[in-house]
Amino acid sequence: MALTTTITYEFEFQAAHQLHWHSGPCRRMHGHSYRCELTFGGQLDENGVIVDFDEVARFVDETLMIRLDHTYLNDVLDNPTAERIAASIFEDVDTSGLPIVSVRLWETRTSSAIVHRI
Question: What distance, in Å, lies between the first and last C-alpha atoms of the chain?
Fold first, then answer.
């Protein structure tokens, strides 16, 4: 029987954005303490892991945090909604070759967006 396993790595970053099209308070520049969950999946390798958490942590620190943490997201992405930020993170991780399955981005304690491979 072949098993598929998933692991999740979580990190946080702080950033500001504004949604110019929004009719409410999100139209003005404001910030969030984002929480992001990266879920990886696949078969275990000879060491019994899908991907080493240290490898994921290095990628997050050297790529995602540099690009996203303490930034004005409108300078990074066009129309930086939670959905678009999550999709951008997914694309970055996927391009790196890490076996990403999904990204969940929490914009607030009660609101998140999920992007996953279909």
Answer: 23
What span, in angstroms and rounded, lies between the C-alpha atoms of 43 and 30?
A: 41
Strand 30-42 relative to strand 112-116, pairing: unpaired
Give the catalytic positions in this structure.
26, 70, 107
How far is 6 from 39, CA to CA, in rounded Å?
6
For 6-57, write each residue's pLDDT tens digit.
Answer: 999 999 999 999 999 999 999 999 999 999 999 999 999 999 999 999 999 9
Gap between the Cα atoms of 118 and 72, Å rounded: 30
Q: Strand 112-116's sheet: what is its strand order?
A: 71-72, 5-17, 30-42, 100-106, 112-116
